[in-house]
UniProtKB/TrEMBL annotation:
Family: Belongs to the aldo/keto reductase family.
Taxonomic path: Bacteria, Pseudomonadati, Bacteroidota, Cytophagia, Cytophagales
Matches recorded under Pfam families: Aldo_ket_red
Listed GO MF terms: oxidoreductase activity, acting on the CH-OH group of donors, NAD or NADP as acceptor
Keyword terms: NADP, Oxidoreductase
Organism: Lacihabitans soyangensis
Superkingdom of the organism of origin: Bacteria
Transmembrane regions: none
InterPro entries on file: AKR, Aldo/ket_reductase_CS, NAD(P)_OxRdtase_dom_sf, NADP_OxRdtase_dom
Keyword Oxidoreductase: yes
Catalytic residue positions: Y51
Protein name: Aldo/keto reductase
NADP-dependent oxidoreductase domain segment(s): 27-259
Length: 272
């Protein structure tokens, strides 16, 4: 298996910097994608209750030849299940569907104004039981992290947000580094909408890599974990083939400048 860089989370847990996202995959498609990913060498699988595929992800992991302890499994509490008691119940349901007695990372999926405090309190309780090896948040921009500091006992291990060269949230990245939170990017490939950007194509040609590989490598060199989604075997393999080259410091700066605050998912600030 290829060497994979990892992040050491603030509680000492090790997490791969590259994983498979399974948003908008259902039934056999989701199960097959995880099977292919594990065979390719991925060891981080990211799902969520909201995706309605935890059962399929659990099936793929259970039938894999890869030991469970070598797989870093993330899931998230659904918006409709937020709140203290509801989150505890939802977590039990996720474990049942995933056919495991623990997850490696459990996240608050969105910072819903009415329930985010109680939901975080529930995650802290879950963490205390050891059934989630780490807890964190998703879609938490700076104001949400600042609010969280006023009532949390535990610093989130991970903050998963939309993040790409075209949405380069440098201030959030710096804040997470200061707080000891590992940043993780979803939709890093911008759902393919920027793959024909001339600047990106020029860099892909220079490094003899695909545009997607340039973006994923950029994330990794920033120390940002990234979870590109694909159910296509060739794309799954392509996205994993990013460990045999490095982008120069000069070109990293060029890619940073691609930022145009381009989002493909709702702005979390609408939750305030």
């Amino acid at each position: 298996m290829k060497f994979q860089p990892t992040a050491i989370l603030n509680n000492g847990l090790e997490m791969p910097l590259l994983g498979l996202g399974v948003y908008d995959m259902y039934n056999k498609e989701a199960e097959q994608a995880v099977e292919w990913a594990l065979e390719t060498g991925y060891r981080l699988i990211d799902t969520a209750s909201m995706y309605e595929n935890e059962l399929q992800i659990g099936n793929a992991i259970r039938t894999s030849s890869i030991p469970r302890e070598e797989i870093f499994l993330t899931t998230k509490v659904n918006d409709k299940d937020q709140g203290y008691d509801a989150t505890l119940k939802a977590f039990d349901q996720s474990l049942e569907l995933l056919q495991t007695d623990y997850v490696d990372l459990y996240l608050v999926h969105w910072p819903l104004k009415a329930t985010r405090k109680e939901t975080w309190n529930a995650l802290e309780k879950i963490y205390e039981t050891g059934r989630a090896k780490a807890i964190g948040v998703a879609n938490y921009l700076e104001p949400f992290l600042e609010e969280l500091q006023t009532y949390s006992e535990i610093v989130p291990a991970v903050n998963q947000v939309e993040f790409s060269p075209f949405l380069y949230l440098e201030n959030l990245k710096l804040k997470c580094e200061k707080l000891g939170i590992t940043l993780q990017s979803y939709t890093p490939l911008v759902r393919g909408l920027k793959m024909h950007d001339e600047r990106l194509l020029n860099l892909a040609k220079k490094y003899e890599k695909t545009p997607a590989q340039i973006i994923l490598r950029w994330n990794i060199q920033h120390g940002v974990s990234t979870i590109p989604k694909s159910s296509n075997l060739l794309r799954i393999k392509e996205n994993f083939d990013v460990f045999d080259f490095a982008i120069s410091d000069e070109d990293m700066m060029i890619i940073n400048a691609f930022n145009e605050n381009f989002r493909v998912v709702d702005d979390p600030m609408l939750m305030l």
